[in-house]
Each structure stands twice: as C-alpha cells, then as structure tokens.
Amino acid sequence: MNVDFTAGSLLVPAAWGLGFVLFSALNVMFLVWMERKVSADIQSRWGPMVRGYHGSMQLLADMVKLLIKEDILPAAADKKMFALAPFLVFIPALLALLVLPIGPGLIARDMGVGLVYYLAVPSLASIGIFVAGWSSGNKYSTLGGMRSAAQLISYEIPRSLSVLGVVMLAGTLSMMGIVNAQKSLWFIIPQILGFLVYYIASIAEVGRTPFDLPEGESELVNGYFTEYSGMRFSFFMMGEYVALLVACLMGAVLFLGGWRGPFGLLPQLGPVWLLLKAYALVYVAMVVRWTLPRYRIDQLLEISWKVLLPISLINVALTAAIVFVGGEWLRGLLG
Amino acid sequence: MSGPELVVFSLLGLAGVGSAVAVVSGKDLFRSTLFFGSFLLSVAGLYFTLEASFVGIMQIFVYVGGVVVMILFGIMLTQQEGARLNASLERRLTVAGPVALLAGILIAAIMTTSFKTVREVPGVDIATLGKLFTNDYVLPFEIVSVLLLAALVGAVVVAKEREK
Amino acid sequence: MGLEYYLALSAIFFGIGLYGALTRRNAVAVLLSIEIMLNGATLNLVSFSRFTPAKSTGQVFTLFIMAVAAAEVAVGLALVFALYRAAKTVDVDEIDMLRG
Q1: Judged by CB atoms within 8 Å, which residues 47-76 of B form the interface with C?
Q2: Under 8 Å CB-to-CB from C96, ≥6 apart: which residues?
Q3: A269 CB-contact burial (10 Å; exposed 0-12 / middle 13-18 / buried 19+)
Q4: Global pTM?
Q5: Domain that holds residue A247
Q6: pLDDT band at residue A310 using 50, 70 and 90 as cut-offs
Q7: pLDDT (tens digit, 9 = 90+) per residue, A31-73?
Q8: Fewest CB atoms less than 10 Å from the CB: which of A92, A119, A140, C95?
Q9: How confident is the model at residue C18 (pLDDT cuts 50, 70, 90)?
Q10: B125 touches C: beta carbon within 8 Å
C-alpha cells in the first residue's frame, strides 16, 4: 500500500468528490424537471410553465420550499437512526461514480475490479432503506423497507449475471478496459439479452414504476419515507434520481460504448456522448414509468426469478460458448 | 509499516475493534447489526491496505450487501419486546476473563514469533485469482457451489411453514 | 514489520467474537458474534498472503470462507425462524426442550 498524506495528493480526491456532488446535484435538478415534462407530455399537459423558460426554474423554487419546511421528527422514531438513514441511501449512489469512465483516460479511479465495485456499492442503499423503514416507528414504513430490501436482493442476482457476458467479451473487469474493448462494436449488439436484463433489473433496483412497490402509495402510503419531510425527504429523492442516473450511465458504459461516438464520430466530444446515451436510457425509463401500471409483489418476484434469471443464465452460457469456439474471430471483430 | 500506513491501519483497526465491541455488547439488536456492517467495512478497508482489492470488494458485496440485509430481515421477523440480549453480569465476567487471557496469549505468541516475511509481495490481480480457482482449487470450488445450492434448498425447507 | 500488527488485530477480533458468542442470549446476536470470529480468521489469511510468498492461497481461501459464511447465515437464520415458530423465542438460554 502506498499512502501519501501530502497536501497535493489529497487535493485530487477532494476535487473529484466535490465534482461528483456538484454533478449529481445539477443532474438531479435537470432530471426532476425532465420527469415532470415527460409525464406532462404523455398525459397531454404542459407541466410546469411559470418559473423560468418552460418552468425550468421550478425546481429551484421547490428546493427553497423543501429547505424552509419544518423538520418533523416522529415521536415514535429512533431519532439518531432516523437522521442517519437519508445519508445511507444517498451516499452509495454517489460512491458508484468513482469507477465511471467519463472520457479517454478520465476516470476517478480505474480499479482492476471496477465492475464488481459498481455491482457491490450501490446496492448498499438497501441498508439505508431498511434503517429508514425501521426507525420511523410506523408499520407502513417498516413494511415498505422490508419490501424494498427483498426487491433489491432479488434483482441484484439477474443484474450481476447480465453483465457477465460483457466481462467475457471484454476480458477485463476494469470499466476503462470495457469501454476500450468496444472500439469497433458496441456490446449491445452481441449482448442484447444481457442489456435487456440489465436495464430492467436496474429500473427495478432503483425502485421506479412499474417496480415501485416499496413506496406503492395506494397500499403503503409512501413506503419507507412516509415519515420524512423537508430536507431529509429531498435527500431520499436525490438518492433515487442519482441511482437512476448512475444505472443509466453505467448501462451506457457497459453496453453503448461509453464515451465513444457512434461509428467513431467526433471523439473529442467524449463526456457529451456519454451523457447523451445515458439520458436516452433515462428517457425510456421515464416513458415506461408514466405509461405502465405497477406490478404486484408476486409478479415482481416472478419476473426476477422466472424470467430475468433464466434469460441471463442462457446469455452467460451462449456467450461462453461463443467466446470458447470463436475466440480468434471475435478478437478480430472487436479489434 | 511507515508513518502514513500506520495511521491508516490504526484508524481502520480502531473502527473495527470499536464496532465489534458495539456488536457484542449493545442493547439494541438492530443497532448491533448496523455496527456489524461498519465492522465489515473496516475489515474490507484492511483488505484494501493488504492489496487484496478483490477480496475487499467481495467483502462489501457478499457480507455488507447480502449477509447484513439477511440478518436485518431475521431481526424484523423475530423481534420481541423487552427480550434480554445479554447474559447475566456474572456470566459475562466469567467469560471475559478466559477470553481476554486467550487473546493475550495469542498476541504474545504472535509478537514473539519471527515470521519469514517478504516485504514486497506484489498485489495479486484478479486474473491470477481466477486461474487459481479454475486450476489448483477447482475441486473445492465445485464443492462450494454444491454446498451453496444445498444451503439454499435446506434453508427454504427449514424455514418453510409446515403444512398441517 | 506489518504482519504482526495485522495478526494481533485479527486475534483481538477473534476474542471479541468469542466473548459475544458466549454471552449473547439472542440467537441472531450469537450468529453475528460468530461472523466476527470468522472475519478475524479471514483477516489472518489475507495478511499471510500479503507478507509471505505463497501464491495468494490465503485470498482464495478467504473467498471460500465468504461463500461458506453466506451459506451458514442463510441456514442459521432459517433455523432461527423455525425456532421462533416452534418455541416463540430466540433466547438461546430458554430453549431447553431437549432437557430431560
């Protein structure tokens, strides 16, 4: 281990950290506005129009409202845990950005096990959700927390298996290496099954409709964050949107060539391509959210265990066979 | 260990020992489990300092993401009001003495033994680990997968409600 | 040298876990204490694989132990559930149905 405590070496991580916080805050503001506009479009409404151009400043007003709202601590709550939970939900999503390749050679930390890191760290949010549900001292919250944890665990498995095909084709677990392996062919083409499983499982993991059972308002009031309000509530909301964005960014990295333009177009635009691809995935997720009804809990678990898991296993077996038989041909194809 | 390394090691070690003590002595089982999570994270940090990054990541993936959540489930389903967590003070004291003695003897033995150590064993990359798993240790590997399957089925059978 | 520090720390973890396993009355808490002991052992293995030239066998075995520990927790919790259903308690000191 080489540890270095000089001022210069601490400055770089600090700058990355600050960058991540700013990046996610700005994107959450944009995502919330985008979601309201997409939902309005689908429902033939205008959506927010008053503040700023087409309501683009609406979220600033909302944030001011959330900040000055009364901070309510339920009498039955476990106060310390109740205060801790929003951070436990928000921080894992933020930490995942550490292994995101933004552009050629531009990554906070190119770990040799970057992909496993990405699979492991965001799922820690389930503990925060558990804590939120438990500490609220409210049975709807507790039930919502338990449901959410069950859902996260069961969708973790197909999601982890779905990226195995990518690992086999790229021959590396480093996120940078995976982007580099997609020089001539994006992995969405050979790995279409893996991509579909990854995308569906990711939407389920961030708990969006049609998989938003943990907070199904018609049966659980508001799930694990029923008792939260004001600032603490906005942390949960931010965590949810950052998780969605991270899932889509990583989907773009793993399957859509990351910062590479289509057909090698305009390579100097690296980070812009990445954001465009991620937002295309975000847009689809939003359309899905506002057009499909919510699943029941048994349907939700059935989709994971009886549909996604077999598909991802078939995908792993197929990819392994192709890599084993046609390794040479494949290397030529991938450059 | 040089200065900065020693600082990192001490911080992680203190966090680990503190969390472990909280796990075995706390009065609230839910909090104990969360301290168990922070104990596991500090051990994962120690793995990173030992250049075993894959083991560290798996520690987070399997233990913190899997085992801790499972145990939280277990607590929620079996929680009882007013159940006592700790044994009597008398029993705790009778246990603490021998355990402290054992740990003391272990540490004394460790400190007086001279190990044949190498300062710079290069960090193992994941490809080497993968090759070890599929060549030298392929039989244990397969046995562990069978064991996992057996445990999965067994857990379902044991936990399932008996039909009348 | 570093190895001794890591080994001493893992011995401390082992001791804390042992104390917990012997003094906790709740079955889930006993399970937690056993996991702390296991972590002490795996830290030991990983330290040796770092400081001795032994082909990183220690890391391989640590990964095996993690897999077995996960299986152990699953079965252990299933037993706790079955126990809770049968005896309505998870206090290991009160479960003495086999005592004649």
Answers
A1: 47, 50-52, 54-55, 58-59, 62-63, 66-67, 70-71, 73-75
A2: none
A3: middle
A4: 0.89
A5: 71-334
A6: very high
A7: 888 888 888 888 888 777 777 777 777 777 777 877 787 777 7
A8: C95
A9: very high
A10: no
